[in-house]
Amino acid sequence: MLMLTCPYCGIDADETELTPGGQAHLTRETVGSDDDTFESYLFMRENPKGVHFERWRHSYGCGKWFHAARCTVTLEVFGTYSAQTTEPPKEICDKISGKRPGWSWGSFS
Amino acid sequence: MKRYSAFAIAREAARYHAGWERAWAARTPKGKYDVIIVGAGGHGLATAYYLGRNHGITNVAVLEKGWLGGGNTGRNTTIIRSNYLQDPSAAIYEKSRSLYETLSQDLNYNIMFSPRGVMMLAQTHHEVRGYQRTAHANALQGVKTEYITPKRVKELCPIIDIDGPRYPVLGALWQARGGTARHDAVAWGLARACSDMGMDIIQQCEVTAVRQSGGKVTGVSTTKGDIDCDKMGIVVAGHSGVLADMAGFRLPIESVALQALVSEPIKPCMDVVVMANTVHGYMSQSDKGEMVIGGGADGYNNYTQRGSFHHIEETVRALIETFPMISRLKMLRQWGGIVDMTGDRSPIISKTPLEGCFINCGWGTGGFKAIPGSGWGMAELMAKGASPLTDAFTLGRFREGRFIDESVAAGVAH
After folding, report:
1. Nearest to B68 by CA among B227, B186, B182
2. How much is the pTM?
3. DSSP one-letter string for B152-201
4. Predicted local confidence at residue A64, as pLDDT
5. What would the 3-class secondary structure string for B274-318 be?
6. A109, part of any domain
7. How large is the ipTM?
8. How many Cα atoms occupy the beta-carbon half-sphere of B277 within 13 Å?
9. Which residue of B has its CA nearest to A38?
10. Which residue of B234, B259, B303 is the best one to mutate when testing the A interface, meaning the one whose CB has the most A CBs within 10 A?
11. Which of B82, B216, B257, B348 could form a disulfide with B97 if both were Cys (CB 3.0 to 4.6 A apart)?
12. Residue A84 falls inside a structural domain
C-alpha cells in the first residue's frame, strides 16, 4: 500500500487515509487567457512514466492538501511538501536528480 | 493459411497433429511499410485487420513492445455490451458488438463469443433514473436494451440478493445480446488473420522514438532498428502518453491501474454478466467455472500493472452483500492493467498535430468490448482521413467543448 508522510501533521498515512487530487503545479488560467492555455489548463495532463508531482489531501487526518513527488513506475516516494508553493522545493529536486539523473517534468528538471 | 475446421482436426488426429502451422509468422521488420501500427493489443490488431480487409492496405507492420495481447487485452474481464447513453458511443459500441457476433466466422478462429446477457444493477434511485434514461436513449439509437424489474433480475440471476440492506436491487438495465468472449482468442484470431494477409507482426520490438520531417511522420526508431512508414497509428492504451511525448504532442489522459481477480472454479451458478456500478464491482462466470470479478480503478497515476489492495477489499466486500453465496470463495489470482483515462471517459480516435500520425486511445476501463468497432473506425480514418464512426471522438473535442460525456452517464468504471 502506498504511504505518504503528511507534511503538515507529520503522520505517515496509508493511501486509504488520503485522497488523490491529480497533477500538481497547474497554473490557474482565467479571463484573458487564450484558447491554447485554457485547453492545456483544463484538460492536458502530465502523464509521465517515471517522476511525477501530484496533489493529495489528508482527508481522514488533518484535512490539508499537500504535494508529493513520486515515481509512477516503482511507486517510490521522493518526498512530500507543502501545497503553498508553485514549484517543488530544491531539496526534493536534488534528491530526484540523485536517483533519476536527467529527469524532467513540465517546466521542472 | 490452412483453415481450422472439424475436418482439419480429424486430418491432424490421423497424423499425430504434425501438420498444424504457426498461427502467425514471426518476422523481422522490413525497412519500410505503408502503415505502422504501434501496439499489438486488440485495438491495434483490429485496426490492422480492417485496414487490410476493408481498405486493401496490407503493407502493414504491427509493432509490440512485449508479447501479443499481453497488455489490457489479456487483463480485462471480457465484457461486451453497447448500452451507452450518448449517440456517438452507442454507434461505435453497437457496431463493435454486432461485429463480435460474426467475428469467429470472419476470422476462422473461435473467439467464444457468448451473448449471455449483461445486466447493470440499479441500486440507488439515481441509478434507477439514469438507467431508465439510458434505456430510452438506446431505443432511439436502435440498441436493444430494456429496463427490468427486481423480480426479473432475480429470475435471470437467482444468486443475487435483491433485498440487501445497504444496496437493494431496485431494477436493472438489461442487454440480452451483450455478453463475453475469450479475450486472448480475439488477439490471436486477429493476429492470425493479419499475418495471413501478409502483414508483419513484430513482438518484443519497442518503439524508442518517432521520427518526423517537416511536421510529418517518417518512421520510428525501435529496439530492432529504424523502420520507415507513410502513416502511423498509435494504439498503446496506458502508454499513450509515452508515445505522444515521443511524437511531440500532449494528451488529456492520465494512466491509472485497474484491477481484476478470479476465484477458484465452481459449478455453474450464473449465466449472465452482472455489473453493480454503485459498489464498483462486476462479475461473470467463465467457462472454466471461475467467477471473474472486476473492481474499481486507482485514483492516481501508475504504470506498475498492479493496483492497491484496498480496492479489491472494497469490491469484494460490496459484492458479497449482493451475492452472499460467494462469501466462502477463495480467490485464485489478482492482476492489474494500466488504463488510459480521459476527462469525459470516452476514447480518442483522431488525427494528431503530427501529420500522418493517428492515435486511438482513452478507452479507459472499457476497451475490450470496443475492439472490432474501434479497429473498423480507426482503419477507415487512417485510410480515408475520416470515418462516421470516429468523427466525434477527436482530440480537439475537449478544446471545443464537445464532450461525449459517459462519465456522468455511467458514474464509474465502464
Report:
1. B186
2. 0.94
3. HHHHH-TT--TT-SSS---EEEEETT-EE--HHHHHHHHHHHHHHTT-EE
4. 96
5. EEECCCCEEEEECCCCEEEEEEEEEEEECCCCCCCHHHHHHHHHH
6. no
7. 0.93
8. 24
9. B399
10. B303
11. B82
12. yes
Instruction: Please tell me which residue of chain A has the smallest CA distance to B310.
Output: A16
φ, ψ (nearest 5 deg) of residue B27 = -115, 160
**B384 Cβ neighbours under 8 A, 6+ residues apart:** B55
Residue to test with chain B: of A47, A73, A77, most B Cβ within 10 A: A47
What's the residue count for chain A? 109
Give residue-wise pLDDT tens across range A18-69: 999 999 999 999 899 999 999 999 999 999 999 999 999 999 999 999 999 9
**B9 falls in which pLDDT band (50, 70, 90)?**
very high
In angstroms, rounded to a whole number, what is the distance separating the alpha carbons of residues A1 and B312?
12
**Model confidence over B317-369: pLDDT tens digits?**
888 888 999 999 999 999 999 999 998 899 999 999 999 999 999 999 889 99
Nearest-CA distance from A101 to chain B in Å?
18
For residue B411, pLDDT over 50 is answered with no
Q: What nine digits make up the cell of A79?
A: 518526498
Containing H/E element for B6?
helix B6-13
Looking at beta carbons, which residues of chain A come within 8 Å of B241? Answer: 47-49
- Identify the band that residue A107 occupies on the pLDDT scale cut at 50, 70 and 90: confident
Pairing of strands B281-285, B357-361: unpaired
Domain limits at A74?
Answer: 3-99
Who among A2, A47, A73 is closest to B254 (CB)? A47
A94: distance to nearest CA of chain B, Å? 22
Nearest residue of A to residue B400, measured between CA atoms: A39
Contacts of B253 in chain A (CB under 8 A): 45, 47
Q: Is A3 on the interface with B (CB under 8 A)?
A: no
Q: How far apart are the first and last CA of chain B?
A: 37
Q: What is the DSSP letter of B400?
A: H
A44 in B contact zone (CB under 8 Å): yes
Is A21 part of a structural domain of the chain? Answer: yes
Q: How many CA atoms lie within 13 A of A35 on its CB side?
A: 6
**Cross-chain Cβ contact B254/A45 below 8 Å:** yes
Per-residue pLDDT reduced to its tens digit, B243-275: 999 999 999 999 999 999 999 999 999 999 999
CATH number where A66 lies:
3.30.2270.10
Task: Look at residue A80 and tell me if it is in a domain.
Answer: yes
Beta-carbon separation of B398 and A15 below 8 A: no
Q: Report how many domains make up chain A.
A: 1
The DSSP letter of residue B362 is -
Q: How many CA atoms lie within 13 A of B215 on its CB side?
A: 3
